[in-house]
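Run: sequence + magnesium ion -> complex structure.
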Amino acid sequence: MKIQHIFFDLDNTLWDHRKNAYLTIKNLFEKEEITLKYSIDFEEFHSVYHDINERLWEQIRDGIIGKEYLRKHRFYDTFRHFGVEDENLSEFFEEHFLDKMLYHNELVEGAVYILDYLKSKNYTLHIISNGFQEVTERKCILSGIDKYFQTITSADSVGVRKPNPLIFEYSLGLSSADKEESILIGDDWIADVVGARRFGMDVIFFDVYKENRQEENLKSITHLLQIKDYL
Ligand SMILES: [Mg+2]
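>> structure
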């Protein structure tokens, strides 16, 4: 059957979460004069934060922790790494992080071009995100890409996250799409690739870090424009 519906992951597939988070934390860091007060270098701070945040998101994905745990710990653990144990300071960062991040809306290179291209070929486009419900739609609207999507599904509104097949079932149901005529495009190996395959739908792995996985029948891209090779 011919592909009709394309489901995109949002963070780091279309919306450049890494870049936007970096810029947001840098602003907070400078505004709070962290380097001056605690002698912490921003690049070092960000690199520690990045590792801690990635690990916590993996734990959320695997159902080990909930999002409250992540929100309580990502900045606290980062500051603690530099010898600063201050709950108020961490809370301040967490509270302002999600709000302020929406002022930064950099998209992944080629995102608008490829969305225009797919639209012009009459595909129906959707989002399936593991992000927070309250943030996902605002990210799409503020970055100007909401108009491309017929449906936007966030893990919070379903109660389960990718790779759980239920979120794919929910999202396809919302779109009246058959899995045989659908494909997912995402950057997380477990959540997106393993998840889509387990559910039984086709998938393109956005191999951002060029992991170069050798797997049979794996559709893989390292730049969004390469989607044209498949669709
Ligand atoms: Mg992603």
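>> summary
Strands lie at 5-8, 124-129, 149-154, 182-186, 202-206, 219-221. The chain has a mean pLDDT of 94.
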